[in-house]
Amino acid sequence: MAWLSSGPSNAALVNNLKSHGLITSERVTQAMLGVDRAHYSPASPYEDSPQPIGHSATISAPHMHAAAAESLLPFLHPTARVLDVGSGSGYLTHVLANLVGPEGKVVGIDHIQPLVDLASTNMARSDSGKELLGSGKVKFVCGDGREGWKEGGPYDAIHVGAAAREEHKGLVEQLRSPGRLFIPVGEWNQHIWVVDKGEDGKVKREKQYGVRYVPLTDAPKR
């Protein structure tokens, strides 16, 4: 029902996602209602489809952001540390920050510096975003997200917003025990994989549904 979830406003979009069963928890509903997608998507922000944000990057469709938030929700506790790989325009980073408590930390990482700058600018467009940035609860950094960001780890939850050719061992290593990684994997035939690290450190991988994401790429050559 994703293609029927678009709306004329942020609230309508979120409520449509909920009514179509794409959002199932009240926490995710409120977190997404608290972030105006128009601050992060320059065109058609309330369409339930990917939109360009420049630099050959896109902001994912809202139903995929909802799916990621729902999947990671059990690990987004009040003191959670979260890594958002391929943070792009910063939208899901803001949603994830809404889902962790005041003691939690969320790092958004992108390898394109203008997108890192854009994410901070976008987040600062709202009072809640300014507070998140000013308090240090959210930080945007430039780096190769395929290697994670060790300085902020270990992480209770890691989201990857572009398709990886492989799982990337470094991301799993930076998961806390317990912790969860949500990652699209594949080139032409892509699927969401959910990787759980148990309290004993053992790793369990589950292949879920087919998707279509832009690829995780190398940083632009200087």
Helix content: 25-40%
- Cα gyration radius (Å): 16 Å
Counted by DSSP, the helix tally is 7
Shape: globular
SS elements, strand count = 9
Distance between the termini: 42 Å
Instruction: Work out the strand percent.
Output: 25-35%
Helix-strand sequence: HHEEHEHEHHEEHEEE
> Ranges with pLDDT <50 over ≥5 residues?
none
With strands numbered from the N-terminus, the spatial order across the biggest sheet is: 5-4-3-6-7-8-9
* Structural class label: alpha/beta
What does the largest sheet look like? Answer: 7 strands, mixed
Mean model confidence by pLDDT: 92
Description of the structure:
By secondary structure, the protein is of the alpha/beta class. It contains 7 helices and 9 strands. The protein has helices at 10-19, 26-33, 62-72, 91-99, 113-123, 127-135, 169-173, and strands at 51-54, 57-59, 81-85, 105-110, 138-142, 155-160, 175-185, 190-197, 203-211. A 7-stranded mixed beta sheet has the order 5-4-3-6-7-8-9. The longest helix has 11 residues, at 62-72. The N and C termini lie far apart (42 Å). The relative contact order is 0.13.
